Amino acid sequence: MTKLSVNINKIATLRNSRGGDVPNVVGFAKDAQRFGAEGITIHPRPDERHIRYQDARDLKPEVYTEYNIEGNPVKSFMDLVLEVKPTQVTLVPDAVDAITSNAGWDTIKHKDFLIDVIQEFKNNGIRTSIFVDPVLAQIEGAKLTGTDRIELYTEAYAHQYSLGNKDAIKPYFESARLANELDLGINAGHDLSLENIKFFKDEIPNLLEVSIGHALITESLYLGVENVIQMYLNKLK
Ligand SMILES: CC(=O)[C@@H](O)[C@H](O)COP(=O)(O)O
Ligand SMILES: NCC(=O)COP(=O)(O)O
């Protein structure tokens, strides 16, 4: 059974674009859970361009499924996560100016740093996951950090799948097999969509959780727009 964690960054992007509180981020998270989401993911970035640190606090009492906070463990992020105490923290090595996450950790180079950070979160009862590329040496390195889980960075898979190259699943399958041998839990995310999720889920053994945001919100717009236009037309009759 693979859990679906809905990433609500894009809801905050939309809200921030008008400066008010529509759509309401907490309300959206509550509805997403009511509609079956098994987790809520946020990725507060240091510039707070979408999710704000205050959103992370406001969501805490309302997320009764799994609460996953992603980000680069700079001091302000660590303080926030230790205050909010979500179910899981996913560590992502993204630069402040990155448009979106664009690489996994070098778990070998940053081993000592990751060991310290992961230990601190685990001491506070927060499950840890680290964002990694599907590279066997990086999976072995992840194991040495003490993390509970890895999150496989799926951008390359998603891109290749859209071009018809299903072989792109191979490094993910090999990485998952090794992670299973090493007793590391497996999450995955980035650019997963209705188009590519089924094949990925079917090919990856023991996939515990996927976090999906960009495509899920885009698909929701397309799948909902006909209905909403009809509702407006009815009001205008
Ligand atoms: C960690 C990851 O893969 C990201 O997809 C991320 O959480 C999305 O962040 P943005 O919404 O800022 O692109
Ligand atoms: N960890 C990945 C995530 O939360 C969502 O990524 P995306 O679907 O917005 O690319």
UniProtKB/TrEMBL annotation:
Species per Swiss-Prot/TrEMBL record:
Pseudotamlana carrageenivorans
Q: How does it assemble?
A: Homooctamer; tetramer of dimers.
Q: In which pathway does it act?
A: Cofactor biosynthesis; pyridoxine 5'-phosphate biosynthesis; pyridoxine 5'-phosphate from D-erythrose 4-phosphate: step 5/5
**What's the name of the protein?**
Pyridoxine 5'-phosphate synthase
Q: What is its EC number?
A: 2.6.99.2
User: What GO biological process term is on the record, naming one?
Assistant: pyridoxine biosynthetic process
In this chain, 3-amino-2-oxopropyl phosphate is annotated as bound at: 7, 18, 191, 213-214
Where in the cell?
A: Cytoplasm
Give the residues the record marks as binding 1-deoxy-D-xylulose 5-phosphate.
Answer: 45, 50, 100
Of which family is this protein a member? Belongs to the PNP synthase family.
What molecular function terms (GO) are annotated for this protein?
A: pyridoxine 5'-phosphate synthase activity
Which cellular component terms (GO) are annotated to the entry?
cytosol
Q: Which reaction does it catalyse?
A: 3-amino-2-oxopropyl phosphate + 1-deoxy-D-xylulose 5-phosphate = pyridoxine 5'-phosphate + phosphate + 2 H2O + H(+)
